Structures are given as structure tokens and as C-alpha cells.
Amino acid sequence: MRAVVTGGAGFLGSHLCDRLIAEGWDVVALDNIVTGAESNIAHLQRHSGFRITRADVSNYIDVAGPVAYVLHFASPASPVDYLKMPIPTLKVGALGTHNALGLALAKKAKFFLASTSECYGDPQVSPQPETYWGHVNPIGPRGVYDEAKRYAEAMTMAYHRYHGVDTRIVRIFNTYGPRMRLNDGRALPNFVHQALTGKPLTVYGDGKQTRSFCYVSDLIEGIYRLMLSDEHLPVNIGNPQEITILQFAERIRTHFENAPKIIFEPLPQDDPKQRCPDISKAKRILGWEPKVGLEEGLRTTLDYFKEYFASKQSAGV
Ligand code: NAD
Ligand code: UDP
Predict the structure, then answer these.
(1) What own/partner pairs with CB < 8 Å and gap ≥ 24 does 154-159 have?
(2) Is 145 part of the annotated catalytic residue set?
(3) For residue 173, what are the domain limits?
(4) How many whole angstroms from 76 Cα to the centroid of ligand 1?
(5) Would you say the CB of residue 203 lies under 6 angstroms from ligand 1?
(6) pTM, whole model, 2 decimals?
(7) Does residue 246 fall inside a structural domain?
(8) Set 145, 159, 176, 215: catalytic member
(9) What is the tens place of the pLDDT at every residue in 69-107?
(10) What's the CATH number where 44 sits?
């Protein structure tokens, strides 16, 4: 049982490597560390079954020896990251997915694609079921991520239908937890970093846009169940507890003694107005639903970030 995880040093990839190692898999992580960090997988280095190789998976992927599963998680995922790296984002969604599928085909391995709720764009249907085809602006700034992931899904289905590769596709909704990068620009790390550095929390637009935040352990459980299932069509994994971004900022500020102010800044172009997963399919076919509520998940995550920030400060970093 040997799995290749692309993007294995990222936020989700590293939690996935943890789970695979705990389940008895050997894991080869491939990562070029553009948005990930070696520290995310430092604790795994002592496991004889774990190896990390620096590689850009948008180039040809070479892994020696047998491989039973290829899990493709490499891609910038924060809007700030993918707006800074539009072409690498398009490449890793398109060429990276093609290469990862090619590896799976060559090794007769199963393939798992980390797709996204961004495939639904700025949805006109809510909550979003897997059958909704989405409402995406292909030429807007977010198109580099959304269209790359939609292409990745199309390529995955083509390898399944044409080459008979045994594939899975998860559409991940906003997920949070330890190991997010404090400066990655996503709402939670941004608010936390602002609160820790005594700055006001920046809510974009009027803050009435909604998101639904899933704690990372719930997401990984859903992913692992999907890996072991035989479902080829996309499955939403996320927490349907929907909240406005203003309410989210307010929840976060109450966790800090200095209770920072909230200020409003312009809404980025094409920012989805609502996002909430319909998880009836995951419930039905995987027997999965999230267990960690927002308050509990926030407490764990904020404790982690407070400790992380204090250790960096005392080290003078
Ligand atoms: P992340 O930025 O923490 O991790 C991505 C990892 O991929 C990083 O370690 C990065 O260095 C690596 N990477 C990027 N381009 C690469 C390349 N060309 N070659 C090799 N490695 C490369 O992001 P994340 O939140 O962990 O997201 C992981 C995956 O899950 C992504 O595919 C993302 O689209 C998907 N996803 C995440 C969320 C979420 O809420 N976190 C939501 C939807 C989808
Ligand atoms: N957002 C915000 N302030 C910030 C960062 C993000 O108001 O400092 C908003 C952003 O405009 C979006 C939501 O929070 O409406 C979630 O943004 P994030 O970047 O976390 O992910 P997205 O769901 O947009 O991919």
C-alpha cells in the first residue's frame, strides 16, 4: 500500500499524509513548496514509510517502484496565492493533473482529485448539489483557479472513461484548521493574523457574503471514506453550517482579549456571494457528515495559532 500525494507539504496534503501513515500506507509526498512548508510534514520524517521529494508536478512526474494510489492535492488554494501565481495555478490544475493521471495509469493505481466548490463559481443555486454545473467567469481573475479545476475534473473523467483509470473527485468546501499559513490571505488566517498583531479585521464588501467552514479532521475523514468507496462522480465534502463573513469575523474577534475592531474594504472581483454544500450525497454513499461545530473548531485552531505565534515571537522570527 503505497500512495503518492502531490501537494503533500500543504495544509490539507499534510493532514492527508498523517491519516494515510496512521492507516498503514507508505507515502511519497511530491511538493515544490510554493505555498506549503517543510515544517508541516517535519514530524513524519521519522517514519520509515514516509518520504518527501521536491518536484513541480506540472513537469513530468517520475516515481520509482509500485504505487497503489495517486492523490492530486497540489495547487495554490488561497485566492491571494492564485492571483499572485495565475499561470502556475493554471498549469498545476491542467498539466499537473494530466501528469498525475499519467502516473496513475502507468502504475495501474487509483487516482483521487482534490477539486473545489469554486467549480460552482458564484452560484445561483444554494445549497450547491453536485448536479449543479456552476456559474463561473472564465476570464475573471478567479478563472485561473476555477477553470483549471473544472478542466482537472474533465481530464479525470476522460481518464476514467477512456483509459479505465479508477478515479475519485472530491469537491472541497472552505476548510480550516492548524497548519494554514498565517499570511495566505484566506479569511480565517487573515483575521487571526490581524488580531494577533493588533490590527483591525478587514471584512471585504458589506460582509453579507456567506461561506460554510469545515474543520480539517472532518474533511480528511470524508476524503478517506471517498478514497475507499467506488464512486467516480464528484462528491461535495464540507460543513453546511452557513455564516456571513461579517458574523465569522465577529466570532473570531471574541476569542481575543483586545477584541480588535472590524473595518470594511472593497470586495474582490467575482467573490462568490454565497457558498454552502449540499452534502446529501456524501451522507448517503459514504455515511459521512461533519462532527466538529464552528465554535469547537475555532477554539482548537485559534489555540494552535496563538501558540505558534508566541513561539515565533520568542524565537525572534
Ligand atoms: P496549500 O497551498 O496549503 O497546499 C497546496 C500544496 O501544493 C502546497 O504545499 C504547494 O507547495 C503545493 N504545490 C502547488 N503547486 C505545485 C506544483 N506545481 N508542484 C508541486 N507542488 C505544488 O493549499 P490547501 O488548502 O492545502 O489545498 C490543497 C488542495 O485542496 C488544492 O488542490 C486546493 O485546490 C484544494 N482545496 C482546498 C480547499 C481549502 O479550503 N483548503 C478548498 C477547496 C479545494
Ligand atoms: N475575506 C474578507 N476579509 C479577508 C479575507 C477574506 O472579508 O481579510 C472574505 C472574502 O472576500 C470571501 C470570504 O472572506 O468573501 C472567504 O475568502 P477566502 O479567501 O477565505 O476564500 P474563498 O471562499 O473566497 O475562496
Answers:
(1) 155/94, 155/97, 155/98, 155/101, 156/97, 156/101, 156/111, 156/113, 157/232, 159/101, 159/104, 159/105, 159/111
(2) yes
(3) 2-179+213-240+276-292
(4) 5
(5) no
(6) 0.98
(7) no
(8) 145
(9) 999 999 999 999 999 999 999 999 999 999 999 999 999
(10) 3.40.50.720
